[in-house]
Specification:
With 151 residues, the protein is of the alpha+beta class. It is 36% helix and 19% strand. It folds into two domains: 62 residues, Winged helix-like DNA-binding domain superfamily/Winged helix DNA-binding domain (Arc Repressor Mutant, subunit A, Orthogonal Bundle); 68 residues, Lrp/AsnC effector binding domain/regulation of amino acid metabolism (RAM) domain (Alpha-Beta Plaits), CATH 3.30.70. Keywords: DNA-binding, Transcription, Transcription regulation. InterPro entries: ArsR-like_HTH, AsnC-type_HTH_dom, Dimeric_a/b-barrel, Tscrpt_reg_AsnC-like, Tscrpt_reg_AsnC/Lrp_C, Tscrpt_reg_HTH_AsnC-type_CS, WH-like_DNA-bd_sf, WH_DNA-bd_sf.
Length: 151
């Protein structure tokens, strides 16, 4: 059994099933979730509340389809700010509309950014903004496979 981080409770098979069901459809009703995991609706609701209070579930979100939004390409860009430019790069990435997720990381690079972009020329234009202040290494995303960690 794996421990919950905040209060040392253990995840049991029902908790795992509930997390998996929510991962597949975060909008599922309590009634639908309770049927999937084999609990009553009040029991399922209580489990969800415990998982939220324990810090395992931190929120429910919306997943966007980049293509449906008009972005035909996605890219991952590793960013290594020039000496003395770290804060300027950090602010620029935070303000950049194309940057949908940005991780501050350790190692040679300081950031890894997930960009939604319309075209290769849009990517070039976006990278030109960044390369004024940093070195970049770019990879085009071919497919996205969203997996749940092995619980």
């Amino acid at each position: 059994m794996k421990k919950l981080t905040k209060n040392d409770q253990e995840l049991d098979p029902i908790d795992r099933a509930l997390i998996l069901a929510l991962h597949q459809n975060a909008r599922a009703s309590i009634r639908a979730l309770s049927r999937q995991v084999g609990l009553s609706a009040p029991g399922c609701s209580e489990r969800l509340k415990r998982l939220e209070e324990g810090g395992v579930i931190t929120g429910f979100s919306v997943e966007l389809d980049a293509t449906a939004l008009g972005f035909s390409l996605q890219a991952l860009v590793r960013v290594k700010p020039f000496t003395g430019k770290f804060q300027a790069v950090e602010q620029m990435l935070a303000d950049m509309a194309e940057c949908v997720v940005c991780y501050k990381i350790t190692g040679e690079d300081s950031f890894v950014c997930h960009l939604y972009i319309e075209s290769v020329s849009h990517l070039d234009h976006t990278l030109q903004k960044i390369t004024r202040l940093a070195d970049t290494n770019t990879s085009i995303i071919k497919t996205v496979d969203k997996k749940l960690p092995n619980l």
